[in-house]
Amino acid sequence: MRFSALAASIAFATTLPFQAVAWEEPQRGSQIRNDLMDAMRPHAEAVFGAPVVFVVQELRVEGDVAFGMLKPVRPGGQEIGFDDLGPRYREYEDREYWSGADMQVLYERSGRTWVATHQTFGATDAWWADTQFCPKWHPVILEVCAN
After folding, report:
1. What is the pTM of this model?
2. Rounded-to-integer distance, Cα 33 and Cα 27, Å
3. Average pLDDT over residues 32-54
4. Cα(137)–Cα(15) distance, rounded to whole angstroms?
5. Could you list the residue range(s) of the whole structural domain that residue 108 is in?
6. Confidence band of 20 (pLDDT split at 50, 70, 90)
């Protein structure tokens, strides 16, 4: 059964008491938001080629950790499709089952630099919901670490 990562995130978020949410979403145009996108850009460009910008579906930051759900697109908003996959990645994908370019990422700050520590594209499950990520990223994935 296909599992929508965005739907899972929304479902998880709505099960939390409002006061339990400690993370914040950086404002559009803010330095931290730009830094997070810049940390993810080389990963997206390695998969889809340059240039890439992101439509932010969800972005959570608390202290030195962050979580993002991003849709890479071309500047101007042109969709990225299966044919944009680099040859190295296309061999592991099947056009018939292509789930899209959406990316999810767990970040951590190292000094003044944000690092995209765990990331993927086209996930059909909520891989970040694995409790192995809770020790470090619990402030931004509270839904899965609360139990």
Report:
1. 0.84
2. 7
3. 97
4. 18
5. 5-145
6. low
| Cα dihedral sign, 13-14-16-17 | positive
For 73-86, how does the pLDDT look when each residue is reduced to its tens digit (9 = 90+)?
Answer: 999 999 999 999 98
Contact 63, 33 (CB under 8 A): no
- How is the beta sheet containing 65-73 ordered, strand by strand? 53-62, 65-73, 103-110, 113-121
How far is Cα 114 from Cα 74, in angstroms, rounded to an integer?
23
Q: Which residue has the tokens 């990645």?
A: 89
Round to whole Å and give the CA distance between 71 and 101: 6
Q: Compute the distance between CA of residue 74 and CA of residue 126 in angstroms, rounded to an integer.
A: 25
User: Taking the CA atoms of the chain, what radius of gyration do you get in angstroms?
Assistant: 15
Q: How many domains does the chain have?
A: 1
Identify the pLDDT of residue 139: 96
3-state secondary structure of 42: helix
The answer to whether 66 and 114 are in contact (CB under 8 A) is yes
Q: What's the full length of the chain, in residues?
A: 147
